[in-house]
Amino acid sequence: MGKELPLARPEEEGQSVLLASSGSGEPVTTSSIRNKRTQGHKHPRGDERGETEGFKMESKGSRKAERANASASTKAGRRRDNKDRKSDRGDEGKDKSSRRSAQKLGIVHPGSYCDKSEIVPHHWIEVENILDGSLFRCRLCLRHLWLPRIESDAKQLSALVEQHGRNEGYCQFLNQHRPAKMLMAKLQDLRRLEAETADKREFARMADKILSDREYDRK
Questions:
Q1: Rounded to a whole number, what is the largest CA-CA distance in the chain?
Q2: Which end of the chain is more exposed for a tag (fewer CB within 10 A), N or C?
Q3: Would you say 122 and 113 are in contact if contact means Cβ atoms under 8 Å apart?
Q4: Nearest to residue 218, comparing CAs of 87, 139, 100?
Q5: Under a CB-based contact definition with an 8 Å cutoff, are residues 30 and 17 in contact?
């Protein structure tokens, strides 16, 4: 007990060492600073890599799933568009088959005479070149007649008239030329409407409706 023990001794190897007496009188060293290497808590490389790799794999998998869902939705949209286009084509075919023929529209060839007794012949005047043909109007009775200007069409019309008669042959030819069929149908209906309608304003209103109708041969 007579000896004095120093409470501390110089720092060794970067550590502060305290001296204490044990029951046996031997000094015991205790470190006041823990080893910095053991103090810092780090994940093992395997854990770090495992966590990082797991995150990457998860993100890649989610991206693949998103791409797969996007491609599936795109394909589904394309299939729907194709179905819509097919249905539209089907409707177009139905529209074509549902149009009225020249016979159903009441188109009649004006013949060679203005009157039924066949005394006064038509005096045709060409009023307009339209639809690869010429539109004629009789100066006396104001009837109209459309005739093709192309040589091949003119020969076809002559053959149909010779084979089926004037009215039927002319209607069959117009059935192959829809714009000309629409024109003749409107002109003949306007002529009938004018004879049946006394009110000129009502006639003008109905005439405008007929002339502006682009689906005039629709059933």
A1: 166
A2: N
A3: yes
A4: 100
A5: yes
Helix segments in the chain, DSSP class H: 36-39, 45-97, 151-164, 166-175, 178-196, 200-211
Task: List the one residue out of 139, 169, 133, 165 whose CA is nearest residue 152.
Answer: 133
Encoding tokens for residue 116? 């039924």
Could you give the CA distance from residue 167 to residue 105 in angstroms, rounded to a whole number?
Answer: 13
pLDDT at 98: 82
**Length of the chain measured in residues:** 219
Note if the pTM is more than 0.70.
no
Residue with tokens 């041969």: 217
Question: What is the rounded radius of gyration, in angstroms, for the C-alpha atoms of the chain?
Answer: 51
Residue 52 confidence (pLDDT): 47
Burial-class residue 107 by CB neighbours within 10 Å (0-12, 13-18, 19+): buried
Instruction: Give the tens place of pLDDT for each residue, 143-155.
Output: 999 999 999 999 9
String of DSSP letters for 150-212: SHHHHHHHHHHHHHH-HHHHHHHHHHT-HHHHHHHHHHHHHHHHHHH---HHHHHHHHHHHHT
